[in-house]
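for the recovery benchmark. tokens below, seq after
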């Protein structure tokens, strides 16, 4: 859904997509990104396979209990997306990220930062700013991840940060502006029955693409209800894209956020100084709330645009 929103909103120019191990292995995540690009009529957007493991830990934390064995399962418990013809581009993702960012910054007259939107582990971005520190003043990092309080895959840890805490620490402390959309905020972007009805009503025709969207959301609903007891599931990742499109929909607060990397109990915790007691410099703008209704306006408009061009509807 984040890819659909980024690719079907006229205020954004999507430069490319890099993948990273997380919900599933990087190979499966890359296949899913390629499938979404193809299904959403975005074949002009290139996909680059990124890091297969965390920077300093042996294996990524996978999450099949939420996203299924494929990383994007349907209600039947198998891969949701049809196989497409598009392939990932050759080469290391971080090298392409650097090239795209520097060229886009140059084309923008060196006045406007390039937004790096992160909806998974921060391994790729940590490598980017470590290998190419010259990009730091040229980017803003907007990420879905972290928690102010209670986590989702640990008592105080959110999955995207927990799976590579050292990478998160590098990114949070690199000096680039960072905006964090924590789970407290994304848990307000709920796919309620009213939202599902609106999607069905506004996407023209009883199309294969509409069926794809509904099946994806229905699987996510069942898994979230089973694991987290939510009556309606949250749509996490598009919140980060929505912030870049319309930051006025969000209330944010600049504060100090540190990443716990050592504790056996809480490695991956985003330690948010909500009372501004730390003597360290404030380094992260943490989103506190958003206009949920207008968020869904953006998301549904993007789904409508994708539905009009999806090759799935022409088969």
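predicted aa per position
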């Amino acid at each position: 859904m984040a890819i659909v929103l980024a690719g079907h909103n006229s205020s954004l120019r999507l430069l490319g997509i890099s993948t990273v191990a997380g919900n599933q292995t990087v190979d499966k995540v890359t296949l899913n990104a390629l499938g979404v690009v193809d299904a959403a009529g975005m074949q002009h957007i290139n996909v680059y396979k990124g890091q297969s493991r965390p920077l300093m830990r042996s294996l990524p934390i996978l999450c099949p209990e939420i996203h299924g064995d494929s990383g994007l399962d349907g209600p039947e418990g198998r891969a949701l997306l049809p196989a497409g013809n598009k392939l990932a581009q050759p080469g290391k993702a971080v090298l392409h990220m650097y090239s795209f960012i520097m060229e886009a910054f140059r084309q923008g007259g060196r006045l406007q930062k390039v937004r790096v939107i992160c909806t998974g582990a921060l391994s790729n971005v940590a490598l980017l700013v470590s290998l190419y520190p010259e990009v730091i003043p040229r980017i803003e990092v907007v990420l879905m991840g972290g928690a102010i309080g209670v986590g989702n895959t640990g008592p105080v840890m959110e999955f995207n940060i927990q799976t590579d805490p050292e990478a998160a620490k590098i990114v949070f402390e690199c000096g680039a502006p960072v905006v964090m959309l924590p789970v407290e905020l994304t848990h307000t972007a709920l796919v309620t029955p009213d939202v599902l009805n609106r999607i069905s009503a506004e996407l023209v025709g009883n199309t294969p693409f509409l069926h794809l969207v509904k099946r994806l959301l229905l699987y996510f609903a069942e898994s979230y209800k089973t694991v987290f007891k939510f009556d309606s599931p949250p749509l996490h990742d598009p919140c980060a894209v929505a912030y870049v499109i319309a930051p006025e929909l969000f209330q944010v607060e600049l504060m100090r956020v540190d990443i716990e990397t050592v504790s056996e109990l809480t490695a991956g915790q985003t330690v948010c100084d909500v009372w501004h007691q730390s003597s360290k410099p404030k380094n992260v703008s943490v989103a506190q709330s958003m206009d949920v209704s207008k968020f869904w306006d953006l998301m549904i408009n993007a789904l409508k645009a994708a539905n009009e061009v999806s090759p799935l509807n022409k088969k």
